[in-house]
């Protein structure tokens, strides 16, 4: 009978490949679970065994018979037991003897075998100490069975050779087990050797050098390949928690600055957004996955870095010392300054990147900080951001936070916060300029160039490509321009709301000069509906008398900026503002600072030159006469600016040349003390001050005076050089300011200290002119010293 053929065939290799992945995964999971459960079971048994050994060693054995007890107590206890026991006369002698024998055996069988002290201790008095340890139960060294992994067998001439391999065991777990098994050893503390101051400094220098090298190595690795070494950012950031008290402060400062520079270099020029669930589930290439991991790591480390900087600033503000006491309270200020500096750098360098609004929220309160250095640092950073922000998105975020902060503090903040608004780029000219910067026109190839370099088919493709590019550029340019205008409008609305609130609620606030200066700059952008109310408020502020001279000048400047822009259509006579400026011009003099001169020159330009059609001849004559008188009272740089203004006015109003003639041109007498420029009869006077200024010690003042006496000609020997004639009055004032002047008049040599001061020219005037006027020009004046008299003679005063 033929043997039945086994129909069940061994599955082929192809069928094995078709086995579902789920089954394979389940098998692998079951195998891993079994291995883990076996290992856990073995560890549990070992733990129990160790616990049992510890309990046996620590427990004190209690023998059944204590040989140390006194015989008296033993007799008493035996008597009590005899009383409780049954009467012996009721038992037979054989039974009694049997019980005694059993009692002797029980004392051996029932006592604790682990006892180190036997029952009959007196008989073994001279037992050795080593024998006691022999009676302690031994711990068995049980070695776990090694788990084997069966590999594919090898076929040889001799036959099939099975192959196995030991399964690797977790080394960390083995180390933990060994630590638990080992008994605790006594720690012997060695005495610490005290170092001298010199040795301590050498050791600190060595430690610091090692830390610097480590920081440099990590930073270089990150810069060389940011995508591969992004994890090293975490290692570098962990050094912010340096615990060595010798170098902790310096190392933390170095790490803060290093990370700041790294983020500025490796951060992309776009904002990284979180991935959606659909994007996470889709399959992507390795390069894309690597880029995603880099972006996620960069954003997370950047976030943690900003949190660390914020914590440094908070610890300093709260005067909070950590429990570790690694850094002293004094060192926290230095750390906080470095942290604030880094935040300011990131605010300016990365306005497009993530968490920029968080940096703004941190920086704005520090602009009002008690520490002047930190406040100035933050204000400068915000100004720099405003100046370089072409689109206006970052500026809008800062303006919103500043406006809310000022309102929340009830307008009790530093004026520097509002002065940062002056750096905003919200002029129409700058918007057009920025649009050209962003969308630089690309030069397309001409037809001749195409014909020389390209084939017919390439020319056809190039034509279509250029057409598409032109359309895209037009769409992008229009979109960016509209976006800019929208952002600028919103920004200006917030700025004006802040200004108007202060004008309404805090008129005596120290913020008022900054508000008036801001209104003067942005007045041409204010809505026409607010003009009447704003002019009334400005005039009431001037009439109140609570303002300083500089603040009142800002009010005048703001009013005329409003009227020179959209205010031309309004029928408003600003005569009261002309009168106020004419009346207060003599508040400027050589004994005061020159801060107000620049504002006066700007006001005169707006009031007289730009509004020439609305200015009468009488008003122009009065202002020219008063300005020439003022030029005698101020410092040389101010005199140059005032004379340059008079030159422009004489060109703007040609009929004012009658002031150069000695003959009167009408009825009445000039009234210099009258505060009304229209009614002071300035046409009946002459500019005799120019002859005094012609003998001024400063050569540029002399040149301007001679030029005006000649009628301010554009050509001829009395005409000015181009470097003087082409510059405005404000520019000339700044160019010849006290800080920039290095003029030294020629004087005879002398060894006296007084002569050295005279040689300094303008600095001498700035320091000692008031004292000289009081000393030598009063009623009880003393005669001039010889050196000073010689100086006057040689310089043709």
TrEMBL record:
UniProtKB keywords: Coiled coil, Nucleus
Provenance organism: Catagonus wagneri
Family: Belongs to the CBF/MAK21 family.
Alphabetized Pfam families for the sequence: CBF (PF03914), NOC3p (PF07540)
All residue ranges annotated as the Nucleolar complex-associated protein 3 N-terminal domain in the record: 211-305
InterPro entries tied to this protein: ARM-type_fold (IPR016024), CCAAT-binding_factor (IPR005612), Noc3_N (IPR011501), Nucleolar_cplx-assoc_3 (IPR016903)
Name of this protein: Nucleolar complex protein 3 homolog
Ranges of biased composition (kind: Basic residues): 40-51
Subcellular location: Nucleus, Nucleolus
Coiled coil feature spans: 447-485
Record SUPFAM superfamilies: ARM repeat
Chief location category: nucleus
Domain CCAAT-binding factor: 552-705
Compositional bias of kind Basic and acidic residues: 52-77
GO molecular function terms noted in the UniProt entry: chromatin binding
């Amino acid at each position: 009978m033929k043997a039945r053929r086994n129909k069940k065939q061994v599955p082929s290799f192809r069928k094995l490949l078709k086995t579902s992945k789920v089954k394979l995964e389940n098998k692998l999971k079951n195998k891993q679970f079994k291995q883990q459960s076996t290992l856990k079971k073995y560890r549990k048994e070992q733990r129990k065994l160790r616990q049992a050994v510890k309990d046996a060693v620590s427990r004190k054995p209690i023998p059944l018979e204590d040989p140390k007890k006194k015989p008296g107590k033993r007799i008493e206890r035996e008597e009590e037991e005899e009383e409780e026991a049954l009467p012996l006369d009721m038992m037979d002698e054989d039974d009694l003897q049997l019980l005694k024998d059993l009692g002797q055996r029980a004392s051996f069988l029932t006592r604790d075998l682990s006892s180190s002290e036997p029952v009959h201790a007196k008989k073994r008095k001279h037992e050795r100490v080593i024998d006691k340890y022999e009676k302690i139960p031994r711990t068995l060294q049980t070695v776990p069975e090694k788990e084997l992994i069966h590999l594919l067998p090898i076929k040889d001439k001799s036959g099939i050779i099975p192959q196995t391999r030991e399964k690797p065991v977790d080394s960390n777990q083995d180390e933990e087990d060994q630590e638990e098994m080992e008994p605790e050893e006594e720690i012997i503390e060695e005495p610490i050797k005290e170092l001298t101051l010199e040795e301590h400094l050498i050791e600190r220098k060595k430690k610091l050098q090692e830390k610097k090298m480590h920081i440099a190595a990590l930073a270089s690795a990150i810069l060389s390949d940011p995508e591969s070494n992004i994890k090293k950012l975490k290692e570098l950031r962990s050094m912010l928690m340096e615990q060595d008290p010798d170098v902790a402060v310096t190392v933390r400062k170095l790490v803060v600055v290093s990370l700041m520079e790294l983020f500025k270099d490796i951060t992309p020029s776009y904002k990284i957004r979180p991935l959606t669930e659909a994007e996470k589930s889709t399959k992507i290439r390795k390069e894309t996955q690597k880029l995603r991991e880099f972006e996620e790591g960069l954003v997370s480390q950047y976030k943690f870095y900003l949190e660390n900087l914020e914590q440094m600033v908070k610890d300093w503000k709260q005067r909070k010392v950590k429990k570790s006491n690694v850094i002293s309270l004094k060192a926290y200020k230095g750390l906080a300054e470095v942290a604030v500096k880094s935040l300011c750098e990131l605010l300016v360098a990365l306005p497009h990147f993530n968490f920029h609004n968080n940096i703004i929220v941190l920086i704005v309160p520090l602009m009002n900080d008690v520490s002047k250095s930190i406040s100035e640092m933050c204000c400068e950073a915000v100004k720099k951001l405003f100046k370089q922000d072409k689109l206006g998105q970052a500026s809008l975020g800062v303006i919103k936070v500043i406006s809310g902060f000022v309102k929340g503090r009830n307008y009790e903040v530093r004026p520097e916060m509002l002065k940062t608004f002056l750096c905003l780029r919200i002029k129409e000219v700058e918007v057009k300029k920025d649009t050209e910067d962003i969308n630089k026109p690309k030069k397309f190839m001409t037809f001749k160039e195409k014909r020389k370099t390209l084939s017919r088919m390439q020319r056809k493709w190039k034509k279509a490509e250029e057409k598409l590019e032109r359309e895209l550029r037009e769409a992008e340019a229009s979109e960016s321009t509209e976006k800019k205008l929208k952002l600028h409008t919103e920004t200006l609305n917030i700025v004006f709301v802040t200004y108007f609130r202060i004008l309404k609620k805090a008129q005596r606030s120290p913020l008022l000069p900054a508000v008036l200066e801001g209104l003067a700059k942005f007045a041409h952008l204010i809505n026409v509906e607010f003009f009447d109310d704003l002019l009334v408020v400005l005039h009431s502020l001037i009439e109140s008398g609570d303002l300083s001279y500089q603040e009142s000048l800002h009010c005048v400047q703001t009013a005329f900026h409003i009227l020179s822009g959209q205010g031309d259509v309004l029928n408003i006579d600003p005569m009261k503002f002309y009168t106020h400026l004419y009346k207060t011009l003599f508040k400027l003099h050589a004994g005061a600072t020159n801060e107000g001169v620049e504002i006066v020159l700007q006001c005169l330009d707006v009031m007289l030159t730009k509004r020439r059609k609305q200015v009468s001849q009488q008003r122009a004559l009065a202002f020219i006469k008063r300005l020439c008188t003022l030029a005698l009272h101020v410092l040389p740089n101010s005199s140059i600016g005032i004379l340059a203004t008079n030159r422009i006015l004489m060109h703007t109003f040609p009929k004012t040349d009658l002031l150069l003639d000695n003959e009167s041109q009408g009825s009445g007498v000039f009234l210099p003390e009258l505060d009304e420029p229209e009614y002071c009869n300035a046409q009946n006077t002459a500019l005799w001050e120019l002859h005094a200024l012609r003998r001024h010690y400063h050569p540029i003042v002399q040149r301007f005076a001679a030029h005006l006496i000649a009628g301010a000609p554009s050509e001829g020997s009395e005409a000015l050089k181009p470097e003087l004639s082409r510059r405005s009055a404000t520019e000339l004032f700044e160019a010849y300011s006290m800080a920039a002047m290095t003029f030294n008049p020629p004087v005879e040599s002398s060894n006296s200290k007084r002569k050295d001061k005279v040689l300094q020219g303008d600095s001498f005037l700035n320091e000692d002119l008031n004292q000289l006027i009081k000393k030598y020009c009063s009623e009880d004046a003393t005669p001039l010293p010889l050196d000073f008299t010689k100086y006057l003679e040689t310089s043709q005063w």
